[in-house]
Amino acid sequence: MKVFLVLFSLSLACFAATPEGYRIETIETPQNVFFHIAGLDITKDGSIYCCTRYGDVWILKKGVWSKFASGLQEPCGLVVDKDGSVIVTQKAEMTKLVDSDKDGQADLFLNLTNAFEFHNNYHEFNFGGVIDNDGNYIGTLNLAAGRNVPGLRISTMATEGGYRGWAYKVSPSGKFTPFASGLRSPAGVGKNNLGELFFTDNQGDFVPTSTLNHLEDGKFYGHPISLLDKPEFSAKKIENMSDEEFDKLRTLPVVWIPQEEVANSPGNPEWNATKGKFGPFDDQFFIGDQTRSNIFRVSLQKVGERYQGCVIDFMSGLQSGNIRLKFGPDGALWAGQTNRGWGSRGSKSFGLQKVVWDGTTVPFEIQDIKLISDGFKVTFTQALDSGSISKESIGMSQWWYKYSRAYGSPKIGLQLPKIDSLRLSKDGKVLTVKLPLQKEQVYCLDFREVISQHGKALQNYKAYYTLVNLIDE
Known about the structure:
Elements: E1 5-7, E2 22-27, E3 37-42, E4 48-52, E5 57-61, E6 64-69, E7 78-80, E8 86-89, E9 94-98, E10 108-113, E11 126-131, E12 137-141, E13 144-145, E14 157-158, E15 167-170, E16 176-180, E17 188-191, E18 197-201, E19 211-214, H1 235-240, H2 243-249, E20 255-256, E21 266-271, E22 285-289, E23 295-303, E24 306-315, E25 322-327, E26 333-338, E27 350-357, E28 366-372, E29 375-380, E30 395-401, E31 411-415, E32 421-424, E33 430-434, E34 441-446, E35 462-467
Antiparallel strand pairs: 1-2, 2-27, 3-4, 4-5, 5-6, 7-8, 8-9, 9-10, 11-12, 12-15, 13-14, 15-16, 17-18, 18-19, 19-20, 21-22, 22-23, 23-24, 24-35, 25-26, 26-27, 28-29, 29-33, 30-31, 30-34, 32-33, 34-35
């Protein structure tokens, strides 16, 4: 089957925002197939590997689709290993698919592990798609829904045992090791240029708003149901613990992702290591959202031996929910899409699109924000019109989120801090914003009134910095 590239008309979506110089291309998927992509990888030769939630694995190579495997149980992660095997996280197990006779189809379905257990709950998703620096395959296990452990009434989420709400790794020989707990609905796993692991989690009880987290051995990320798999925690003990006690155990996220404003159901964090092939946003995470059909960026900063950083929207108006992102060798950003289960703003039920930069146009955008000891250093992709910069033209707000067993959280302690001073660099691209700072606050910087020296306004004019640690003077 031949594939055709079609420019997606952004005029069909009134909410669309596309940075100048970028375009969306729509890929024709196999005819009469429910192509709900839940796993995506791209090899060095540009071949596209997709797994669908209906249990198939497909390959797009040189414009032709072919089916590599079928019969899997709602796989939600896929990665191609260096030997050409395909590692899929399906609900009941992590599976290695091998084409031993080289006919283009998998003939060996090897169970790498099912040590985490599966109880046929619809919400027991198994996410993956990452190989760590030691060659281990990484997975994250969704909590179940609607079946509470007898006597455990603190959550509508549940486990019947077997490491629900955990991250795990599996060695190439199949050794299963759970290594972090407290996950709720960890729909996406990724890694940065150092090979450090990160995951997104979706808003719910004990997750006040969606998050990006640094995934580390031994850490607890806040949802207490997974503690049942630790011998020191019984159901009775967990039932009698307060939210404040759980709070003392948890690791705070790298960034809070404001609900509705940026994302509702974020997918995998995809690191931009394209070295300029995707424009002026190298060394940042790009994350798609399943509900809002958009893509946003996260820039990291290490302060006090932990990561924190800022969230900036990037592009909206894609055709369906963006659950899986992957950069190709040519620098294009591919989006595997589905609206199954929760719906999406995009009008299509499923699909495959890619975002392409024209290679020359630099859009007017907030490029990055970094914390300094007494404020923020904001870098723009183009020089600013100094006449549009004033304390009154820049909006500032700050808040935090309440950690509790309630579903989500409003903005707690919302304030409008006053800016002390502004300084624009000689080249007009770096704005230093000084103001009083507090720990454990989300700071929103709003530049909707700021224009470039060419008179252009920002399409994505808000940035959200999650400040956990201050910089010592």
